[in-house]
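Postdoc handover notes: sequence design on the structure in folder B. Input tokens:
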């Protein structure tokens, strides 16, 4: 059987549980502590929707070969910084060299043909001039009846043949010149193909992926290297259609990257939603001074309106963590500190939302100081 002192101890324990005093906080009604206090009030701050996203480079490219040939060498690896137009990989140039030699030979042959056509046209022009002058002289002799009709007809026929030969030689020269221009275009194409054996950096950047190795077969459209610009990053987030109206182009939003908040500017709102998730892609540019890498996880706070939503916010400095317990020192009407357990919600900057444990209008210790304990008298410092 329990004696009287044991029953009294149990009753005192039950009575003590009603104040929700946290373990380790012993009541001390005689101590007086100077600490800054504040009054809990509902806040009119907008509701913040937190979207998660990923850091992406503003400019990124996948480099591939325009030719089907063996990869002769790759000069870079992941993480290497490269300059614009630097040679990153080389495709075996045997086929390109053969095509270039063939194009050069075709151009030389076309030029020789054009030269021969020009000579033939010059000879035809001389013959035509001679035939013309002879024809004109025979016309005068014919008027004087100094030549026969047959002789005159023979001279006229030769003149007509010479004129036709001149016209034909001009067309042949024109055609030869066109073939020369075609050969020049073929040579330019062969030179471009030769240049395609060198895969170059499109801009200053960093190599992010190496998809092929030396000796692999390269084909048009098959990735070999991935590169991204060394400057300029953005954040890609998906926003539900219910919150899209809260975002506008040029809007500044808080971006949380590894516990650091940085300002971001909305640069793109993709106008087509994903049919499965009913969400929209939003791209947010980051300042150039932010040190980030592609693929990093981020959170973006988006102010949105919520009907009848007034959060109770207090400074984070007022919250006391003791093991798995969270609480604050409430100041009662007698200016006594009473430790109360609370349940917290979202964090907004240096403020935290109180779900339960503290009511609107109640005073609390904003910055707990050393020596503050449950039951201590509290005075605001002067």
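Designed sequence:
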């Amino acid at each position: 059987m329990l004696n009287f002192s044991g029953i009294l101890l149990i009753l005192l324990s039950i009575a003590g549980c009603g104040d929700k005093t946290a373990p380790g906080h012993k009541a001390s009604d005689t101590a007086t502590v100077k600490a800054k206090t504040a009054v809990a009030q509902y806040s009119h701050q907008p509701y913040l929707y937190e979207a998660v996203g990923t850091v992406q480079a503003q400019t990124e490219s996948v480099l591939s070969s325009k030719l089907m040939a063996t990869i002769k060498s790759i000069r870079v690896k992941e993480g290497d910084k490269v300059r614009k137009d630097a040679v990153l990989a080389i495709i075996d140039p045997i086929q390109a060299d053969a095509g270039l030699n063939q194009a050069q030979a075709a151009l030389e042959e076309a030029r020789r043909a054009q030269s021969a056509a020009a000579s033939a046209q010059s000879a035809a022009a001389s013959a035509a001039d001679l035939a013309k002058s002879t024809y004109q002289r025979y016309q005068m002799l014919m008027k004087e009846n100094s030549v026969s009709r047959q002789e005159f007809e023979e001279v006229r026929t030769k003149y007509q043949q010479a004129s036709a030969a001149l016209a034909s030689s001009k067309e042949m020269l024109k055609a030869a010149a066109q073939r020369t221009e075609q050969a020049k275009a073929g040579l330019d194409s062969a030179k471009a193909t030769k240049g395609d054996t060198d895969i170059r950096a499109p801009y200053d950047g960093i190599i992010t992926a190496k998809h092929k190795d030396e000796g692999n077969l390269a084909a048009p459209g098959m990735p070999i290297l991935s590169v991204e610009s060394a400057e300029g990053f953005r954040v890609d987030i998906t926003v539900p259609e219910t919150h899209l109206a809260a975002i506008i182009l040029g809007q500044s939003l808080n971006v949380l990257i590894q516990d650091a908040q940085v300002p971001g500017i909305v640069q793109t709102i993709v106008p087509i939603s994903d049919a499965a998730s009913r969400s929209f892609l939003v791209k947010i540019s980051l300042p150039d001074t932010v040190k980030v890498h592609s693929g990093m996880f981020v959170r973006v706070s988006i102010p949105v309106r919520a009907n009848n939503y007034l959060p109770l916010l207090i400074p984070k400095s007022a919250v006391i963590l003791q093991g798995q317990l969270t609480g604050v020192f409430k100041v009662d009407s007698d200016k006594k500190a009473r430790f109360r357990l609370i349940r917290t919600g979202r964090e907004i900057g240096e403020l935290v939302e109180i779900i339960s444990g503290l009511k609107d209008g109640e005073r609390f210790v904003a910055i707990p100081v050393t020596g503050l304990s449950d039951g201590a008298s509290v005075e605001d410092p002067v």
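Context for whoever picks this up: Residues 72 and 178 are 38 Å apart (CA to CA). Don't rerun without checking with the PI first.
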